[in-house]
Amino acid sequence: MNQQPLTEGDLDRLEELLDSPAFKGEAMRLDEIQALLCAVVSSPETILPSTWLPEALGEEPEYESEAQAMEIMELLMRLNNDIARSLQDGETVALILYPLDEEGNEYDYASWADAYVYGCGLGSDWFELADKHAEDLSELLEPMFLLNGMMKEDVEKSGEKWLSPAEEARLVEEMQEDLPDIVLAIYDFWRAKEGSSTTIRRETEKVGRNDPCPCGSGKKFKQCCGQPDKLH
Fold first, then answer.
1. Fewer CB within 10 A of the terminal residue: the chain, N end or C end?
2. Which is nearest to 171 in space by CA: 179, 159, 183, 161?
């Protein structure tokens, strides 16, 4: 199998194949598959292709030929490997995002975040696996729940007051900008947890992820001492 990183032409071809009648409209879009695979690669458990492929492509594709089936499988596995290499090397993933308007002024972060959250559920419960570190995992995942609308829905269902439109827009814009770093931070969270069984002890007042780091570096807490490898 070709192990070379995907080119722009490869991504265009994969996008074209996903729109093929073979999938009867059941295949995820390319942006959603990328998000799903980011969660799969980050998972504390091994999620096999036999689990995530039916989620990405639908249960029973009707391929035109064996060659078509092999082509899409190869492209998807290369996409999976590209994401894994980037995260393993401590690099952010270049997100695939579709515009929401013809001018390209807004992009569909909601669908990306929603597919990521869906990918988190393909194995065991992440919060149970995080155990004593579940609160830290919750903080890392909050931007996903904000971007896909789940956080707003939960707050409103509970009868609590949601953010003002201006506050929501500001926070959403910030999370959109930070999304590649958030994806990497979640990956690092699980890799750090694999290498440590120590309990997090807070000896000072809790600092928000977007607050200035108390160490005085001038960076946000999440980009400095609040990174998962330093928390664990």
1. N
2. 179
pLDDT tens column, 66-96: 999 999 999 999 999 999 999 999 999 999 9
Tell me the whole-structure pTM to 2 decimals.
0.82
> Quick check: helix, strand or coil at residue 99?
strand
- Rounded to 10 deg, the angle between the 66-88 and 30-42 helix axes is 50
104: confidence class by pLDDT, cuts 50, 70, 90? confident
Which CA distances in Å does 90 have to 5, 85, 191, 229?
17, 9, 11, 11
DSSP state string for 14-70: HHHHHTSGGGTT-SPPHHHHHHHHHHHHH-SS---HHHHHHHHH-S----S-HHHHH
Greatest CA separation found in the chain? 62
